[in-house]
Amino acid sequence: MKLTKRKFTKSTDREPSAYQLIWEQIDELPIEGKRYPLERGRLIKVANERGWYKVKSIMQMRDDDTKHEIHCWWQSTKLMMPHTKGEFRTIRPEHVKHITGDIS
Predict the structure, then answer these.
(1) Residue 13 lies in a domain
(2) I need a surface site. Which of 9, 54, 56, 96 has the fewest CB within 10 A?
């Protein structure tokens, strides 16, 4: 049973934000020297940092094809446990140390 009788309004069309005008999302990013390409859901390790990163999205600058951002979910352990820590992080492709074959 609903607690209020409030009706939810449908989302309205909004103009794109400044971030959306600068960056666009891409599906896959091949990195030279790596066996697997970066794609959504792929597990990766980052140089000089502990924990596992799960790729959520890959952004590319609209004006410059060489600039990329990788938006990831970081976890202190590979599997979720009661003591696992996690946070959302952004990294650059040159910091990727290892790309696993696991896609989740």
Answers:
(1) no
(2) 9
